[in-house]
From TrEMBL, chains A, B:
Keywords: Ligase. It comes from Macleaya cordata (Five-seeded plume-poppy). PROSITE patterns: AMP_BINDING (PS00455). It comes from the Eukaryota. One of its GO terms (molecular function) is ligase activity. Belongs to the ATP-dependent AMP-binding enzyme family. Residues 468-551 form the AMP-binding enzyme C-terminal domain. Residues 22-418 form the AMP-dependent synthetase/ligase domain. The keyword Ligase applies. Residues 565-597 are annotated as: Disordered. This is AMP-dependent synthetase/ligase. The keyword Ligase applies. Residues 566-581 have a biased composition (Low complexity).
Length: 608, 608
């Protein structure tokens, strides 16, 4: 049986590009992309991508060249997910929230040959290009300067340019597409290059293969049970793990992509109403935007109901951070149906999905939300997941209690970090990918994250999961966001310090300082947690520091927490109620920026 | 980027075996298999399969050894789909409807090392083993005699044995499973060996790879939108393309397998009612069993309704033959929801699925049934499908009219035919797999089969699709089954000849000869078809000859048709009504058997 040969008929390379070819054929007349008044069909999207690929080839883009793009969720960015790899090139989507310095670093590291820039991002892109031209210490040769192509707004052209070329001209310019797929590529070839947002370290360039992208896409559609003809709202940035594979997935299902330039509540609610959106992805932070958004006066579709509910349910896949159970409960009351996924850039986005079980429908809603906040079971593209003691590589017992590092293996794991052999080698151990996250496996096989390895607080020899403390904080009716980190403690070594933003709805900033005291929060935690796990310090901020992808930057908060010492009166022997009057509320606006000088400013402010 | 290495963490072999490992872990306590009063959980099924694999290894089964099995849809057959390849071996499921001679041929050709036999099939298996021991002309060496292991009924043990070993003893005997998967295999390794039923030629051994099986399984679950926790009724034999991949697919979804020994209406309706079946697969012929079955007196669940309807809808995936639109309409009225798929053994079962479009819901039910009878769009594991002129390999226009051969390529296509290089080479051409089926592509991208290449009737230079004539025949209220083949015609070369069985419901055998004349049927066809396409001969049989998998054996009917000549009075110039009284109705019981002597008997009978 080993003699039976592989041939082009029975062993074609796995690639998400086949999803577009197929959609262009079997879903030809269905709407593929909606953006403002602009609508495309799958036949058109297929042709536009072919023309883009052809134009890139005529610009001398060859196999494995990197094509970078800085754009919001506009049709051009969607099309590049197919058109760029169709030309054999590797798509590098750059986070639009980065500053010029970070963008220049990525352009330099990726050696991008082409740089597509949405017209709105010309100022920061120009500055990045200027920085790119500057000589860098230790660089053996000057940086390659990419060909710059502006993306004007396809729906409302502005005429703004940066250089000579514009995206639509490329799409309209070339009819003679010579496909590079099929004959010329191997499924292990790179398809995209995604730089991590760097919650814990410098950005690294994560490379996906065609095979990994195909398998991740298929598994995730399957796991989320995305049926036929979905209408998918682009609330999640496409630059985030290629939209958690749904850039390719919507093509696989012949669905409709609803593109929006800004992820604000009015635009999201309008799109949901107008295009009958069925699916969307977002980080839990967007739940807050949606919850606050229904109260804004300019929100077009408030249906005069005292209690706003969506006309038809919208499936939300959420991840990036564990969604607090209380927040899930709130958003579901509006008619959103939340599925919780866990993933990371290195695992092509979501790797675990909290698959719902029918029997859980019998449970009280509060219990359901708790189950829903668990990270769940592996998608089918992963061969195996486990929680291990990293020293011994022995699996922890499946008791929901013993913590260990979450490890993954399977075809949805990245090829590795681009030009970073050391980091690549460090990420893989004994045939496993190490996530750097700490978790438990429950007896029912569902995994639950307890923390990032670096976020575990070790207090008096006990491990405290910051996520567990945060979960309790989120249950407090006035807490909008919470982040818990270690602060130094003279006796215990470390102790939890909580950073909190308050809900606008329940408490206005003016009244907050009077009503919501640190003591009340600590007391609340002590009622709901073992005493040693309750924070000994609560700091109120107007905003929490976040990465460009919306993840809370705990390393910033850790730096801040180091400047505090726990009040001696907050020891466990003193009843929390007695402490409340003594403790001053710290309430500051956080200026989100990764730069050290600005961090210093915040630290200075916090010392005021 | 090419330097980034494949490793065990990021490039694991694709195999459906990972579905079982995963199910045993994340769906551990859910019911995996139900058979009578016997219930297993996924934890148990995983352990039983490991033990089976281990026992096979201790019986000296090594990589690529063939393990054959002759059994109905019992739990043992399900478990072998995992346990046998876990030991590195190749599973060969033998059609239980074959005779001893055919079984011996398969055992000889496959060189089976082990032969599992369900207790019910001991007589035919013993005879096959006897034949296997006989010397064969042209054989270079005596046939290998496999180790025989009987499968007793797990729910009601009979104690019947053939040889010393019994399946449950194997499963209970060995705790030390040394897994061969992962480290030891390549995804291109064989997983199963399925002999075609041979509608047109001698059986060939189709080999699937682990990769092909994995990808086919995932695509088919996705295309059928099989959600979580399905309850799957085994109405389709598992020996038929490994249950169209659902042997592996139910594990992938953590569903429940409802096994039944016989595919009879009472057992199917009882299982549907008792276990809340959500999904089942079957050939359209089973629709007739279900339709007739609701009228039988021993049917336990007739709910005293004048119009029987299922309590909750059951999804049916059907294929193997195009389901007549009228039949789809009838079965859907009972509460079954039909999805039509097209496939063949060489494409790991279903390769095209008639994906439903929401807008079709607006159409009249008759139009819907017609759309539903089309073969549809490719599953995602196929890279491409097309309809081509085989001479030029040029694609036909997508107009729903131009016919050509249906060709496929992608990872769900077989590795090839075992020990048959010539047939393998013939099946592949220019990077395509040739299905031997003739079809059209509609402007909306949906494919529709017109015929098997060999079944096209060429009459006066015009191609007549036998399926098209059959579709009209099925619309006649009294027609239960219809098959149309070519018969010789002195002027036109060939002309259609129809073989028909009548519906029991509408016409009893006694009255049929009086009421339903050949002329009436021909007249009906001429009203609904171009005249040249209407049959010039109609033969009434009590049963149509079928393969062991329920496909009508047109080659038998063609042989029969050759013995007829069209009545000269049935030329198009004579009004059909005028002919009816002249033509004698031929009504015979067909004895289904492939053997030439018996065919001769039938031919003799038909001349009576």
């Amino acid at each position: 049986m080993d003699k039976l040969p592989k041939c082009a008929a029975n062993c074609t390379p796995l690639s998400p590009l086949t999803f577009l070819t197929r959609a262009g054929s079997v879903y030809a007349d269905r709407t593929s992309v909606i953006y403002g008044r602009t609508h495309f069909t799958w036949r058109q999207t297929y042709e536009r991508c072919c023309r883009l690929a052809s134009s890139l080839q005529s610009l001398n883009i060859v196999k494995n060249d990197v094509v970078s793009v800085l754009a919001p969720n506009v049709p051009a960015l969607y099309e590049m997910h197919f058109g760029v790899p169709m030309a054999g090139a590797v798509l590098n989507t750059i986070n639009t929230r980065l500053d010029a310095n970070n963008i220049a670093t990525i352009l330099r590291h990726s050696e991008a040959k082409v740089f597509f820039v949405d017209y709105q991002y010309i100022p920061v892109a120009s500055e990045a290009l200027r920085l790119l031209c500057e000589p860098v210490a230790n660089a053996s040769q000057p940086a390659n300067i990419p060909l710059v192509i502006v993306i004007d707004d396809v729906d409302s052209p502005t005429g703004i340019r940066l250089g000579e070329l514009e995206y639509e001209e490329l799409v309209h310019g070339n009819r003679n597409y010579a496909p590079i797929i099929d004959q010329l590529f191997d499924e292990w070839d790179p398809i995209t290059l995604n730089y991590t947002s760097g919650t814990t370290s410098a950005p690294k360039g994560v490379v996906y293969s065609h095979r990994g992208a195909y398998l991740s896409t298929v598994s995730l559609i399957l796991q989320w049970e995305m049926g036929s003809e979905p209408v998918y709202l682009w609330s999640l940035p496409m630059f985030h793990c290629n939209g958690w594979t749904f850039t390719w997935g919507v093509a696989a299902r012949g669905g409709t992509n609803v593109c929006i330039r800004n992820t604000c509540a009015p635009d999201m609610y309008r799109a949901i109403e107008e295009h009958k959106v069925t699916h969307m992805c977002c980080a839990p932070i967007v739940f807050n935007i949606l919850l606050e958004g229904i109260r804004t006066p300019d929100q077009a579709i408030n249906t005069n109901q005292s209690e706003f509910v969506l006309k038809s349910p919208v499936q939300i896949l959420t991840g990036g951070a564990p969604p607090p159970a209380a927040l899930v409960e709130k958003i579901e009351k509006l008619g959103f149906h939340v599925t919780h996924a866990y993933g990371l850039t290195e695992a092509t986005g979501p790797a675990l999905v909290c698959e719902w079980q029918a029997k859980w429908n019998q449970l009280p809603i509060h219990e359901q939300s708790k189950l829903k906040a668990r990270q769940g079971v592996s998608v089918l593209s992963l061969a195996e997941i486990d929680v291990k003691d990293l020293e011994t590589m022995v699996s922890v017992p499946r008791d929901g209690k013993c913590v260990g590092e979450i490890v993954l293996r399977g075809s949805s794991i990245m090829k590795g970090y681009f030009k970073d052999e050391e980091a690549t080698n460090k990420a893989f151990k004994n045939g496993w990918f190490l996530t750097g996250d700490v978790g438990v496996i429950h007896p029912d096989g569902y995994l639950e994250i307890k923390d990032r390895s670096k976020d575990v607080i070790i207090s008096g020899g006990e491990n405290i999961s910051s996520v567990e403390v945060e979960t309790v904080l989120y249950r407090h009716p006035n807490v909008l966001e919470a982040a818990v980190v270690a602060m130094p403690h003279p006796f215990y070594g470390e102790t939890p310090c909580a950073f909190i933003t308050l809900s606008m709805r329940k408490s206005s900033p003016a009244s907050a300082s009077d009503q919501k005291t640190e003591g009340e929060i600590i007391s609340f935690c002590r009622k709901n947690l073992p005493h040693y796990m309750a924070p000994r310090k609560v700091v109120f901020l107007e905003e929490l520091p976040k990465t460009s992808t919306g993840k809370i930057q705990k390393f910033q908060l850790r730096a801040l927490a180091k400047t505090y010492t726990p009040s001696s009166s907050s020891s466990s022997s003193v009843p929390p109620a007695a402490q409340s009057s003594k403790i001053q509320i710290t309430r500051r606006r956080y200026v989100p920026d990764d730069n050290q000088p600005q961090l210093e400013q915040v630290l200075a402010m916090s010392r005021l």
